[in-house]
Amino acid sequence: MQLQSKLPDVGTTIFAVMSKMALDHHAINLSQGFPDFPISDKLIQLVNKYMEAGKNQYAPMPGVPELRSAISKVIEDKYGYLPNPETEITVTAGATEAIYATLAALVNEGDEVILFDPAYDCYDPSIRLNGGIPIHLTLKQPDFSIDWNKVEESITHRTRVIMVNTPHNPSGAVLNHEDLKTLEELAIKHDLIVISDEVYEHIIFGHSHESALKYEGLSKRCVAIYSFGKTFHATGWKSGYIIAPDYLTKEIRKVHQFLVFSVNTPVQYALAEFLNDRENYIHISDMYEQKRNVFQEALKDSRFEVIPCHGTYFQLLSYKGISDLDDMSMAEKLTKGHKVASIPISVFYQNKQDDKLLRFCFAKNEDTLLKAADILCKI
């Protein structure tokens, strides 16, 4: 049978490739973005509590009411925006499902979607699978900032969506107040939908997170996406949520119901109770900032250049002063020869731009970070 692939240029994601390589070669895995330390015992106990209480059948399609109510209160507390739990909040099977459901619901055949490279690898395929046309703009070096003049020049009558990601994976850059005001002005002027990937909202250093929901003009035309997996170190739970005005939520839920219908029920009840205590999430940035500082300090005598990291749990290192190898070859060499796995940044660019940068995940125990840094300092 002749099969025509919808994604002929897409292979196995780099995260799976590098994690397998790390496993095969017994390397320290700082490639894929998952913590190697346990999640809260209290949260585990709450999941068990609700399993024992019989909360094991399908949840309501938009999410259990208790969780949506808790999310609403958290968002109001953090950003001064009070989303309606019934009509503006949808619990999803992680941020990736949230992104896909949003694009499937809102992008029509031939619509253009502006995104910024280096971009998380699910954006482009999700756009194309739903008939959209990805318009890749490159973030400015060395700070990975957005050239807003270039953005406006790229907007056409077919542009429907702008996708932003702050704090930004893979660079660790963050958008500031001026960025969000400019985005708001452009979205209103050109009648655009904004998809704001904010999954690392609780992992930001020296700044307060500038959510799109803080801006009235954006909140009326924005889909903001969040991740409990990133926030509570439970990436395997695949739990996240979408906040969007009711007219967008209505369309997104039409798709969401046929992708997963609903999300793990006892986990939702557990998260709802866990969110009611601010102490369970307000110190997350402090914890990760400490890990970032430990990793950076341990690398100060290395030949790698440490790129500033303002958010996420990823640290970019430049190896320009060490090798002329392309970044994929360098990542393989480090994994196989030196037993430290990372992610090459060229994979996040449509044009495979190679700036000799590797991404290392510091969501690890400090012993793991120090061991990896010791190896890197000997290169």
From TrEMBL:
The keyword Glycoprotein does not apply. Keywords: Aminotransferase, Pyridoxal phosphate, Transferase. Pfam families: Aminotran_1_2. The keyword Transferase applies. GO terms for cellular component: cytoplasm. Its cofactor is pyridoxal 5'-phosphate. Residues 27-374 form the Aminotransferase class I/classII large domain. GO terms for molecular function: kynurenine-oxoglutarate transaminase activity; pyridoxal phosphate binding. Belongs to the class-I pyridoxal-phosphate-dependent aminotransferase family. This is Aminotransferase class I/II-fold pyridoxal phosphate-dependent enzyme.
